[in-house]
Amino acid sequence: MQIAVTHKDADFDALSSIVAATLVYPGMVALCPNSLQSNVQQFLALHKTAFNLARDFSAEPASVRKLAVCDCNQWRQVEYADQLKQCVHAEINLWDHHLHAGDIVPSWSCVESIGATVTLLLRVIQKEKIAVSPQEATLFLLGLYEDTGQLSFDRTTPEDVRSAAFLLEQGGDLGLVVEFLHVAYSEEQKRALYRLMRRARQYQINGRRIGIGIVRIDQHVKLAMVVQLYAHIIDADAVFVVFENVRGGFFIIGRSKDPNIDVRIILQAFGGGGHAGAGSAVAGPEAGNATAIREQILTSLYRNSAAGPVVSDMMSFPVTTISPDTLLFDAETIMEEQGIHALVVEEQGRLTGLISLWDLQKLTLCKQRNRPVKAFMRRDVRTIAPSATVREAAHMMVREDIGHLPVVEAGRVVGIITRTDIVKYLYGML
Ligand SMILES: [Mn+2]
Which helix H or strand E contains 92, and what residues bound it? Predict the structure, then answer.
């Protein structure tokens, strides 16, 4: 007897992984958890017979030779954990993309930082040329798309994307994938979202936009989707929502799309877990009140979200400056000679304007170039402090569509940061 198991409240990656395990290990049975996420449940209602799933654990524990544990590494997350632990003759193979150590001790494991657990199993399926039916391909695609945010999340790897291509070749149906990934929000979810939008506060922490909300709930609601949508609407780098139930318990959900904000580390303080990008924690009344939890999250965010490089690390220095009386013709010559695209205009050591090559190129008549810079320069120049993060500079440039930001400290221009610097930063070339 060989069994594939996964975590309770199974999502598509969990279900995909145990079904894929039955392909990788001939003779293995996938033990489907009783608790499934609602869209997984709807998908299975339609595809009940397409997969070889066992719905309850009926094997004699001593007869189990192999256990493939997929997409989780903690016994408390696995249904039938008590019976499974009695499978003393079973060799445990662990397939997972959660890197923190759990209490399930495998004799063999394939644990990697990758978008979806199913990608790890698909590696074997492709290598061994194991046949995949269109229904299986559709399910695997759902797992892959759900866990990678349709191949957009930070931890998505080139191999995840290649696996998606492979699954399409096997007849995976994108129409079904889209249908089951986007399930309609229930009335309760909508109410929770309205309440969250009204109550949540936004913070700027080390140049990042963080939303933190406290919401009281009086009934069972699938909250992860609500938090996801909230994060999307406010365009936050990270969000944390403390849900408080009538019995004084707390359910905290965190989401982050910033590689420097690790949700798992922040929620560990409340006994939670998950990924760097998504996690949750359940806390009892001993955690205090919701406001105290919010304060603790904020403290932890200030401490744990690395500020990243600052403007002074990458600004150009020294800055070539000209006076407002410099002729435009001369300004253009200076830029050409120095290979720069903008000049800072200063008068008695004070920033008074900025002129860019782009501005000059708009002047078509030659005689206009005999006029002083002050006739054409921009006077409403946005500046940034040397201690600001490069991220803040990037936001400002994108928001205001500007190519050059003079770096100003105590009223003096100490450097300049350009669009090219920002692009280099965004692409990690520094
Ligand atoms: Mn997963």
Answer: strand 91-96
